[in-house]
Amino acid sequence: MASRLNLYDILGVSQNATADDIRKAYKLKALETHPDKLGPGADEKEVAAAEAKFRDVRTAFDVLSDPAKRKAYDNGLNFIRRRIIVNPDEVQARLARERAEWQRQAELRHQERMRVLREEILASQKRYQDTKAQAELRYQEKMKAMEEQLQINREAEVAAVEVKDKPEGSYTLVDELLSDLRRRSPEWELRRQKVLRVNRASIACVRLIKETC
């Protein structure tokens, strides 16, 4: 019976009953359900049923007569009643709203992650392009310097060969031509002087090595 009825129903009182009402109701129910009221001809099933009813009455009184136990029981009873009277359609609608909100939040988080990823990719590409441009610029500057140095070396070699191959009596004319070239192209003279300094330094190093050996 206790599994089908709540404790107030067992005692036959309302949930708003006072402590005195509960005590009076218990006395009446105890007299009604006491197994001793059964006649001597009662069988085992009747005795067992009477004992079960009496235990339910006793349990109901033990709980409802104690203020702390009654409060805890009332809280649980009210919670169960609220769950019973909830509209299933409202529950489904609430679950649908919560599911839709969760999906919306998940989509926002996904979009934010994709935005951050795109920004990182663009920044990485820009760093790569900047590094590539700087490397290309350094390469071009290095190649230009090498070409200038090769040109200086070729001009110095040509000038040296021309002077060496001239007859002894023609050095005056060569000197005049070189002097005119220096006047017309000061840049060429600067390159020639630079090559001569390098050559003199190289010759000095070779001599020093030979002397030390």
UniProtKB/TrEMBL annotation:
Keywords: Repeat, TPR repeat. SMART domains: DnaJ. It comes from the Eukaryota. InterPro entries: DnaJ_domain, DnaJ_domain_CS, J_dom_sf. PROSITE patterns: DNAJ_1 (PS00636), DNAJ_2 (PS50076). Pfam families: DnaJ (PF00226). Gene3D superfamilies: DnaJ domain. Residues 6-77 form the J domain. CDD domains: DnaJ. This is DnaJ-domain-containing protein. It comes from Dichomitus squalens. The lineage of its organism: Eukaryota, Fungi, Dikarya, Basidiomycota, Agaricomycotina.
